[in-house]
Amino acid sequence: MPDEIIVRPYTSPDEDAVVALWERTFPDDPPWNEPRAMIRRKLRVQPELFLVAKAEGDRLVGTVLAGFDGVRGWIHHLAVDDRERRAGVGTKLMRAAEEGLRSIGCPKVNLQVRATNAEVIAFYRALGYVLEDRAALGLRLGIEI
Ligand SMILES: CC(C)(COP(=O)(O)OP(=O)(O)OC[C@H]1O[C@@H](n2cnc3c(N)ncnc32)[C@H](O)[C@@H]1OP(=O)(O)O)[C@@H](O)C(=O)NCCC(=O)NCCS
């Protein structure tokens, strides 16, 4: 893992860089994942589990959002700048998110990945995650974005 990468909770000066990273990394995100609205919502719930990875010069190179609902932990928006991949940044972010969840008593982490995203599935498997035989269901609750 790269020693020069620091993983720490998000702070408001990170906003523009996070938005830029998410727009590059998740260009097909649905409207309810609008970056600034997502940031605002996450800051209202377990903001300490919104982590960023910083390289030398305070350059933002990655993000992860984690949350514990009292039963399971969830991971969202793990993203590493495409110029910085395969150098351990994603692993470092995930291990920090897992540690944050563990520290508040979370026994298990879940996450969702598009079934077609073989590379990201390979990444999570490399970290010890296993594919589980579940169907993913969702319901929009119709709140203002
Ligand atoms: C998935 C992602 C976060 C991985 O970040 P990363 O910093 O490159 O990951 P790491 O360097 O820590 O990789 C650790 C291991 O995972 C595996 N891995 C990582 N990327 C991989 C890929 N594209 N294909 C196959 N295996 C991969 C490898 O085993 C790797 O170890 P190695 O480089 O020594 O072979 C990054 O590719 C990304 O941001 N992808 C786009 C965003 C995304 O889809 N996020 C997930 C949404 S839930």
Concise overview:
The protein is of the alpha+beta class and 145 residues long. The protein has helices spanning 15-25, 35-44, 89-103, 118-126; strands at 6-9, 50-55, 59-68, 73-80, 109-110.
Description:
The protein is of the alpha+beta class. It has one domain (6-126): Aminopeptidase, CATH 3.40.630.30. 31% of the residues lie in helices and 21% in strands. It is built from four helices and five strands; from the N terminus they run βααβββαβα. The protein has helices at 15-25, 35-44, 89-103, 118-126; strands spanning 6-9, 50-55, 59-68, 73-80, 109-110. It has a five-stranded mixed beta sheet. The longest helix has 15 residues, at 89-103. The termini are far apart. Bound molecules: coenzyme A. Coenzyme A (COA) binds at residues 25, 78-80, 85-91, 111, 113, 117, 119-120, 122-123, 126. Residues 25, 78-80, 85-91, 111, 113, 117, 119-120, 122-123, 126 line the site of coenzyme A.
